[in-house]
Amino acid sequence: MVEFFQRTIDQLNNQYSMPEIADIPHIRSTRNAYKALGKSPSDYRNAAEAMLRRIVKSNGLYHINNVIDINNLMSVTTGYSIGSYDTEQLSELVELRRAPDGENYQGIGKEAVNIEHLPTLYDRLSAFGNPTSDSRRAMIQTGNRTIMTVIYSFDGKSDLQEVIDRYCELLIQYCCVEEINTIFVL
After folding, report:
1. Is CATH 3.50.40.10 what the domain over 2-175 is classified as, yes or no?
2. Read out DSSP for 52-71?
3. Which pLDDT score, from 0 to 100, does residue 142 have?
4. Which of 100, 107, 114, 167 suits 4 as a labelling partner, its CA being 20 to 30 A distant?
5. Domain layout of the chain by residue ranges
6. What pLDDT is recorded for position 185?
7. What is the predicted pLDDT for the residue at 141?
8. Mean pLDDT of each 10-residue bin along the chain, 186 residues long
């Protein structure tokens, strides 16, 4: 996994310039969604854009664990922001909605993250994820887990099946995943 990860990062470092990143189609669609919801996409970059900017600046990406590394690789190669969540930490009802004024949560590796006006995942307890930064509450830890992965798409589903198929291949290859169920939620 480490070699595949680094090889992909090296390829992307040579593929894009900083100004080109915001024009990648799925990144541009997410930026437009943020604007429509009242959030500045330059102040609150979606994860795919933020990670690509790190790569182009030759800062690379951190290795977390295989699931998160696969999410990050899929995000930077497709332009989709992708979040994976430990379902044992979530209640049954999950919905995506615009976070209200003043909303925040404890982010992964961060204190309070301002999620006001971002498209945000909620369960019955609270907010736990969005295309910019996920909360600590539902983060993936080591060990056997049942995860829910969300590919945030703001421009339809034309290539999503191909992205999902590749994502599943990587999970099987690098994470020893035994069962995968997929659904599209529009």
Report:
1. yes
2. HHHHHTT-------HHHHHH
3. 81
4. 107
5. 2-175
6. 75
7. 85
8. 88 93 97 96 96 96 92 97 95 94 92 94 96 94 87 92 96 91 79
Q: Quick one: pLDDT at residue 186? A: 62
- Predicted TM-score (pTM) of this structure: 0.92
- What would the DSSP string read from start to end of the chain? -HHHHHHHHHHHHHH--HHHHTTSHHHHHHHHHHHHHT--TTTS--HHHHHHHHHHTT-------HHHHHHHHHHHHHS-EEEEEEGGGS-S--EEEEPPTT-EEEBTTSSEEE-TTSEEEE-SS-EEE-SS--BSTT---SSS--EEEEEE-SS-STTHHHHHHHHHHHHHHHH-----------
* Cβ-based neighbours of 169, under 8 Å, separated by 6 or more: none
